[in-house]
Amino acid sequence: MISATTRPRLASKARLRFDRKSTRYMLLYPEKGLELNETAADILKLCTGEHSLAEIVDQLSRKYGRDAPDVERDVVAFLQTMADRGLVQDAP
Amino acid sequence: MTEASRPYTLIAELTYRCPLRCVYCSNPLDYATHGEELDTDTWLRVFREAEDLGVVQLNLTGGEPLVRDDLEALITGARGLDLYTNLITSGIPLRRDRLERFRALGLDNVQISIQDVRAADSDRVAGVRAFDRKLEVAGWVKALGFPLTLNVVLHRANRHRARRAARRRPARAGQHAVPRLGASESLRAPAHARAARARPRDRGPGAPAPARTHGSPLRRPRLLP
Questions:
Q1: Is the residue at A2 inside a domain?
Q2: Subunit contact A30:B147, Cβ cutoff 8 A
Q3: Gap from A40 CA to chain B (nearest CA, Å)
Q4: Domain total for chain A?
Q5: Residue A14 is part of a domain; what is its CATH number?
Q6: How many CB atoms lie within 10 A of CB B37?
Q7: What is the structure's pLDDT at B3?
Q8: What's the pTM?
Q9: Dihedral over alpha carbons B93, B193, B70, B19 (to 10 degrees)
Q10: Which residues contact B218 (CB under 8 A, 6 or more apart)?
Q11: What is the ipTM of this complex?
Q12: CB contacts, 8 Å: A22 with chain B
């Protein structure tokens, strides 16, 4: 379960890569990949295990000029789907 | 090239040589008559051209790719192009120190084939004693921190054990190993037609429908075609 103190990081099998064809970021993992939109890429770039969820929300709400609770709801929902796929986990 | 026709994955069959003799395999056994394998520089050129076409994933396979003594150079070249690099192997000729070297060079993922869930049955299909060795190698793969995929070709002789194959965990694999059924070698195109062919990546398991696509600045990413 994702909480404010969660420090999400990419699973070791997943690698973030900029794709110059689509000019988007991709998240690559064994035999598959996700093409990310700008906000998804912004979230995953912060999933290094160093930043807490609260810090990620703070950075993104300032970048996008949105209220923190709205951003938090979206970030948590997105990270939960990524965690369900085994692509994001909580840093130990 | 449009996004729709863009290739995402290159399957590089580096050699026909293989220590296994799987009964279903389409790999030629008279490979000496098939001419020379592509050399290192040619493969590196193919990788560059593939990446330029849009390829982001590289599968190094064969035959048994470990019999190539230039695998280190090929992995280095592939990672230099930022390709997600996957080694598909029987595991048989692998030494642990070589696997450690691959890890240091940036190899991303290892796929090991097993032919059944029991040693005797697996070895019968493989044509050689290989099962115990495969599990040992799978244990190294996990111990070194690689993601591991187990490939199991399903056929009449083992399909009733498919569930057990799906649960199969290599020795000392730890609790994070989640083997899953992979594409079978026998389902691929004939060997003579696929030496260096790029093909689009298969779509993964169906993604759940987005819970919300409007009113949110954070939309879900879409799965690559």
A1: no
A2: yes
A3: 7
A4: 1
A5: 1.10.10.1150
A6: 20
A7: 65
A8: 0.78
A9: 10
A10: A39, A40, A43, A71, A74, A75, A77, A78
A11: 0.89
A12: 3
